[in-house]
Amino acid sequence: MKQEMNENILFDVAELFKCFADSTRIRILYSLISKERNVNEIADLLNMNQSAISHQLRILKDAKLIKKRRDGKTIYYSLDDDHVYNIIAQGIEHVEE
Amino acid sequence: MKQEMNENILFDVAELFKCFADSTRIRILYSLISKERNVNEIADLLNMNQSAISHQLRILKDAKLIKKRRDGKTIYYSLDDDHVYNIIAQGIEHVEE
DNA sequence: AATACATATGAACAAATGTTCATATATTCA
DNA sequence: TGAATATATGAACATTTGTTCATATGTATT
User: What is the CATH number of the domain that holds B47?
Assistant: First the structure.
């Protein structure tokens, strides 16, 4: 990590971490570590309504943290990036100390 | 990372990431990677007023991401944890792709 | 003790954010 | 084509959040 850092990059990093900074979104991401899931499955798992989950999935998708795949009526979401797992793992390590 | 995850832990992880999810705070943390700094130094560096920085330092302190050391009138802040560096580094890696 | 310097804090305000509700879009199947 | 299922979206609302302003606290120096 170089000494002089572009302000814009740190701004983007903050934007990225916003995705991990909400318990709904982080539970969604965590649930996708083991396997891909569709929207209603996630909603059931988190015991939240489908609309709330859809809104959050869009945020995660825009941030390129997850990707989608359609199979008939169903849309499956999965993690899109290795960093996602690593960042969550670091976070868990920190809070578990 | 184990399969069944305590909901509370993920909640705490989200709380942790909130610290990294604001550009003021992440610029503060980034500025502390190279060396400890006092409050006014940080305020000058980020071109923000002293009060705003103090408020954010308190949040970072409460989250145990930074620690303080008094030397006379001056209080020096520094990073309190290895994970801080690692989490920021992962974040930068992701956005730089 | 009085002044100056460094930092912290509380209240107020504006801006950003997450959820809900109602409804729209897309796909499948009878 | 029409009904059923799965997902997406926009508006509204309440809550949270970050900054500013004024002021308080703590320390050193004269």
Answer: 1.10.10.10
